[in-house]
Amino acid sequence: MILSKQKPYEKVLESIGNARNLFIVGCSGCPIGCQSGGEKEVINFKEKLTGEKKNVKGWIMIDFLCNKALVGSRLRRRLNELQGTEKILVFSCGIGVQAVANMVDIPVVPALDTISAGGLQGLWPSTERCQACGDCVLDRTAGICPFTTCAKRLLNGPCGGSHSGKCEVEKDRDCGWYMIFSRAKELGILERLKEPIPPRDHRKRDLPPELRGTTLSALEFSNERRAQ
Amino acid sequence: MSKLKESLKSGKFTITSEIGPVKGTNIQKSLDEIEPLRSKVVAFNVTDNQSSVMRIASHAVCTLLHQRGLEPIYQLTCRDRNRLALQADLLGAYVLGLRNVLALTGDHPVLGDHPEAMPVFDFDVITLLQTIKKMMEGKDWAGNSLDGAPNDFFPGAVVAPDSEPQDPQIFKMEKKIEAGAMFFQTQAIFDTGKFESFMNKVHKFNVPVLAGIILLKSPAMAKFMNENVAGVFVPDKLIKELDSVDKKDRPKKSIEIAARLIREVKNLCQGVHIMALGWEKYVPSVLTEAGF
């Protein structure tokens, strides 16, 4: 299972900024397991946002956002509500956020931080990758992860080795920052991209002790059942 | 105060060059090579594990230049050091008398001679520049007070105008200026028309730019750089021009091309950065032919 936890509410609000018309996408996969973003959490969040005078035009739960084809087909049925939506709030790991960002031309806001990809159940990614850095910046980077797409994991723009949209490391590898820049331009959010993104807090890449406990207990529990 | 800063401030067309540290301890030859440039070149870059090939440390060679009365530009990349090491090295450089710091991301280790190395990039160049600014004001990155601030650093950065497309590079350049870069040296340029359009776009930033000039030694070297050096693109036209002369006349041709490039950019930017790559002895001729 991919472990995630909700970002601080103020941080999500900050990412939403002035956008008023919102849509929420929840993942019925791993976030339910770690209680960070199941139906209950999505509805709670929707009500909180309504209290902030935000207009949540609609919400949807999709089984496994990491399955991009499924995300596309399910969102296609909700085009009416997506029309006029300024930002999409996504409750999933970084892969799901990037999958939504790739399927819809609306800026995304991650509601969760991904903290570990232990176990990998339900993981069915396309090109999107998540390193579970625990400090998601996909709202800042046009829904494309700089940590996994850039060979140098740069957070503030391309290096001098980027050429014709390709990386200096492998000639057929896409430059992550070329993709982010182009997508931000398409979405009209280049100004936001100019703000410096601070370096990662590497402590967040380690699994917090309480979750280490949870994973262990889960394993012990299944062993006990097997023994019975 | 940094002589480089002084020169750029005075509005004088500023010439910098560079020294590539050796792999080993025999550094006398490279120190001797730059001696003929003493009178015309304001400052010398010392590269930091250039192209991700392991060599003698940049700050050590910078210190030797400084002791000889030459002005060094300390190149510092984010590739090999985490945030503790970057800041510790900056403080160390300062007490050794180094003032000019050129902050770079650094090439990826896979391009060099230790391709299996950990690519550190704990900080990117934006954060590195912000850190230098912060340290100059007496604090480290984490906000702790410094006992003695390196308040006279002169931080700069690089930009690759020949990279395609140009806009993402300019976007990053603007971020570098916001973060504290006070001058720019460019990756080698060969297409002066393209450089002019680049300068038109960045003129508004009001930060001095030194155009990178490489002495082309041979058609093979040009082709090699096109294949292997990040951000360098030698047009076929120049390769053919170099190929049109006998091998023995190549230095003459190389001098002619470099001097022509300098003349063409002279009124567009605030100076040039000459990378001679072992041909330092020809640099005085290049400068004379370019009118300096």
Describe the structure.
The complex is a heterodimer of chains A (228) and B (292). Chain A is α/β, with parallel strands linked by helices. Chain A has two domains: 1-134, 3-Layer(aba) Sandwich (Rossmann fold); 140-203, no CATH class. Chain A contains ten helices and six strands; from the N terminus they run βαβααβααβαββαααα. Chain A has helices at 9-16, 30-33, 39-51, 68-76, 79-82, 94-103, 146-149, 176-187, 190-193, 209-227; strands at residues 3-6, 21-27, 55-62, 87-91, 108-110, 112-116. A four-stranded parallel beta sheet of chain A has the order 3-2-4-5, with helices on both faces. The mean pLDDT of chain A is 88. Chain B is α/β, with parallel strands linked by helices and 292 residues long. Chain B has one domain: Alpha-Beta Barrel (TIM Barrel), CATH 3.20.20. Chain B is built from eleven helices and eight strands. Chain B has helices at residues 3-9, 28-33, 58-67, 83-95, 125-136, 167-179, 192-202, 219-228, 236-243, 250-265, 283-289, and strands at 14-19, 43-46, 72-77, 100-104, 154-159, 184-188, 209-214, 271-275. Chain B has an eight-stranded parallel barrel with strand order 1-2-3-4-5-6-7-8, surrounded by five helices. In chain B, β4, α5 (125-136) and β5 form a beta-alpha-beta unit. The longest helix of chain B has 16 residues, at 250-265. The model of chain B has no long low-confidence stretch (mean pLDDT 95). Classes of the chains: A alpha/beta (228), B alpha/beta (292). At the A-B interface, α8 of A face α5 and α6 of B.
Secondary-structure map with pairings?
The complex is a heterodimer of chains A (228) and B (292).
Chain A (H helix, E strand, L loop, with lengths): L2 E4 L2 H8 L4 E7 L2 H4 L5 H13 L3 E8 L5 H9 L2 H4 L4 E5 L2 H10 L4 E3 L1 E5 L29 H4 L26 H12 L2 H4 L15 H19 L1
Chain B lengths: L2 H7 L4 E6 L8 H6 L9 E4 L11 H10 L4 E6 L5 H13 L4 E5 L20 H12 L17 E6 L7 H13 L4 E5 L3 H11 L6 E6 L4 H10 L7 H8 L6 H16 L5 E5 L7 H7 L3
Parallel strand pairs in B: 1-2, 1-8, 2-3, 3-4, 4-5, 5-6, 6-7, 7-8
Helix pairs in contact in B: 4-5, 9-10, 10-11
